[in-house]
Amino acid sequence: MRDIARAMEMEAASLYNHIDSKQSILNALLMDIANRFTVGMQQIQSSSLTALEQLEALIDQHVDMTVGYTDAISLVPSEWIHLEEPHLKEFVTLRKNYEDAFKAVILAAIEEGSIAEVDVDVALFSTLSTLRWLYSWYTKQGIKVELLKKELKRTLLQGLISSL
C-alpha cells in the first residue's frame, strides 16, 4: 500500500479513503483481467475465423493483454489464490470457463484438420503456461509486439501443425 501511495504522491493512510483494503485491489485487478479474457474469448469464438485462426487470435490476445496490463497480468499465475469468497469462486469459474473454451478451439482445430491429433490437455496447458508467464520475461528482451506475436504463434503452433 505504501508503494501505491508513493506512486500516487499521497500518504498511505490517505489511500484508504479511496480503497478499503488490499483485498479490494486484488479483486479489482484480477476480475478485470478475467473479464477481459472472457470477452475476448467470446468475440474470437463468435467470429468467422477458422479454428486455427482462432488459436492465433487467442495468442495475439494474450500478448496484447500482457503488454497492455503487465502488472495485473503478473497476478494471474499465483496471486489469485489470495482472493476471498465470493470473488475466489467467481475467478475460478471464469478461469475454468476460459480454459474449457480454449480447449474447445483446440479440439475444433483438430477436427478441421489444421493441427495434428494431440493430447488436448497437454496442448492446452503447455500453451497457457507459456502465455501466462510471458509477463515475466518479454519486457527484458526488448522484442517488438508484432514480432513477439509472430514468433509465439510459430513456436506454440508449429508443434501442433507438424506431425512427428
Query: Could you state the CATH homologous superfamily?
Result: Tetracycline Repressor, domain 2
Count of DSSP E strands? 0
Strand/helix succession: HHHHHHHHH
Average pLDDT, all residues: 89
The biggest beta sheet reads: none
How would you sum up the global shape?
globular
Provide the CATH top-level class. Mainly Alpha
- Radius of gyration over alpha carbons? 18 Å
Strand content: under 5%
In CATH terms, what is the architecture?
A: Orthogonal Bundle
Task: List segments where confidence is low: pLDDT < 50 over at least 5 consecutive residues.
Answer: none
Total domain count:
1
Structure explained in plain terms:
This protein is an all-alpha fold and 164 residues long. It has one domain: Orthogonal Bundle (Tetracycline Repressor, domain 2). It contains nine helices and no strands. It is globular. The model has no long low-confidence stretch (mean pLDDT 89).
Helix and strand topology:
Blueprint (H helix, E strand, L loop, with lengths): L1 H6 L4 H4 L6 H24 L5 H18 L1 H4 L13 H25 L8 H13 L5 H4 L3 H17 L3
Helix pairs in contact: 3-4, 3-6, 4-6, 4-9, 6-7
Any descriptors?
about 160 residues, mainly alpha, single chain, Tetracycline Repressor, domain 2
